[in-house]
Specification:
alpha/beta; 36% helix; 256 residues; 7 strands; Rossmann fold
């Protein structure tokens, strides 16, 4: 996080993590398309033969509070999913304030999801962070495909963990806004608890979140959007507990 008191601007970094071709870039493209001209910056993406993103995507979004006197600048990144780009993933993850794990819902991709979760945990640790302090928001993408983990299984898993879990079909924009708003809410609550941003800047986190949702074309309230999650809790995590059942379930083939 970067805080500029003179400009009354907060900059946060959010990273979309996950295996190759799970839908990370598709999420960013959808958010870019939803954002108004005043909110969105240039979307930079590199497409390759083997994966859509070779290094990373960068999508800067800027939202103002309702009074217009505080600006929340969001830098959205994705990482390359291929195993060969492990060093790049570690580098992109440095300084992240929040992480979304984009998992592929297909049963055949369970092993790749598991490897990506372990990679995320290890890279957070290598960067001086801990997955128990920065639990990922999880999106199970590609819900329109056959041979996927059932809604019932994912719901049972989600209700037993603390991670926010969303279902998505990112190519159709389904679950994209919900995942982003859930991640932004969790990130703001965590940063506010540590840095007391609301009091120092005299701004309501709810107001900033509502502004972000509005500028992304939301027609529903933030409360309704956040209510689309399958489970999890919005309270910041400050313990050293091990990852809970949602995160473990995202990487296992059986029920949690």
């Amino acid at each position: 996080m970067q805080l500029d008191f003179s400009a009354r601007e907060v900059t946060v970094k959010l990273v979309y993590y996950g295996p190759a071709l799970s839908g990370k870039t598709t999420n960013l493209v959808s958010l870019h398309e939803r954002a108004g001209d005043e909110a969105r910056g240039r979307l930079m993406t590199l497409e390759t033969k083997n994966d859509r993103t070779l290094f990373f995507d960068l999508l800067p979004l800027t939202f103002k509070s309702e009074t217009g006197d505080v600006r929340l600048r969001i830098k959205l990144f994705t990482v390359p999913g291929q195993p060969v780009h492990a060093a790049t993933r570690k580098l992109v993850l440095q300084g992240a304030d929040g992480v979304a794990l984009i998992a592929d819902s297909r049963l055949t991709e369970t092993e790749n999801n598991a490897a990506s979760f372990v990679d995320l945990r290890d890279n957070l640790k290598a960067n001086g962070n801990d997955i128990s302090r920065m639990p990922p928001v999880i999106q199970f993408n590609k819900r329109d495909l056959p041979d996927i983990r059932s809604d019932g299984e994912l719901e049972q898993m989600a209700t037993r963990g603390r991670e926010l879990v969303y279902l998505g079909v990112a190519k159709d924009g389904v679950g994209v806004l919900e995942t982003f708003i859930g991640l932004l809410q969790l990130t703001w609550l965590t940063l506010d608890k540590v840095h007391d941003l609301g009091r120092k800047l005299r701004v309501s986190g709810d107001a900033l979140l509502a502004s972000a949702a509005m500028q992304l074309g939301a027609t529903e309230s933030v409360e309704t959007i956040l209510g689309q999650r399958l489970g999890g809790q919005l309270a910041p995590v400050v313990t050293d507990a091990l990852p809970t059942s949602s995160a473990r379930g995202a990487t296992s083939g059986g029920r949690s």
